[in-house]
Amino acid sequence: MIRRSQLYVPSISEKMIRKSVELKADSIIFDFEDAVPPEDKEKARELLSKILKELDWGKRELCVRINSLQLLDSYKDIVAISREDKITCIVVPKAENDLSFLYKATGKSLIPLIETAKGIVKIEDVIRSEGVVGISYGAADLALSLGGDYSFYERNEYIKTLIVSNAKAYDVDAIDKVYFDLKNVDGFRRECEEAKKLGYVGKQVIHPSQVEIANEVFSPTREEIEWAKKVIEAYEMAKKEGRGAIRLDDKLVDYVHYKIAKRIIEFQGANQ
């Protein structure tokens, strides 16, 4: 599953839900949490259920962000989406503990969000939960929980590295946080590029205009694909000759570079 772009769609908006069918996001996250006022939660659940029966999103991953597990509404969300076969993934806000029970109860894959102080401390318990396929975080909620400044946590390299390190340790997707300044296109692209360099595979987005940029940045470039093909060909030829490291374009290439090259080509193939 490719998750270059995960687009949040308010589940209370019929117009936006229907529009999401036309968009090129790899994943759609129908939001029951922040995008829905408390008095409209039940209406959102009913609306999404109705439209899911009418529309076809193809092979794209369809997720729902439920309400916090500390709230009764989250259990109403879980009951509602358990009946929806098209929903294959649950995004869990403010994740702080082992979530295996949720996977066992629903059969849906899980993408927890680290958004609290306890979530940071317990991140390994969260990410080791059965059914977890990816992980992301929320800078605003995290700053609130820690009593810090949002703008600082928005660019905090420790948090970014903590998330991606744990993701890689347990072989799940690291997906970068949302970017709220919709007018700052250059800033969004720059944050995508920085996240990719850290090892993130994609980004959660909040507006259709961000989807194309995220898909572009988190896809291999033409230069990366050409490099990968050269490395694979040269390394596999050298391996037949009993050599484990080679010189390619005046640079040392060994098994690590070969694995990186294979990952690039596999990603390209999965995206075609």
TrEMBL record:
The keyword Cell membrane does not apply. InterPro entries: Aldolase/citrate-lyase_domain, Citrate_lyase_beta/mcl1/mcl2, Pyrv/PenolPyrv_kinase-like_dom, Pyrv_kinase-like_dom_sf. Its cofactor is Mg(2+). It comes from the Archaea. One of its GO terms (biological process) is oxaloacetate metabolic process. Residues 4-208 form the HpcH/HpaI aldolase/citrate lyase domain. The keyword Calcium does not apply. GO terms for molecular function: lyase activity; magnesium ion binding. Gene3D superfamilies: Phosphoenolpyruvate-binding domains. This is CoA ester lyase. It comes from Sulfolobus tengchongensis.
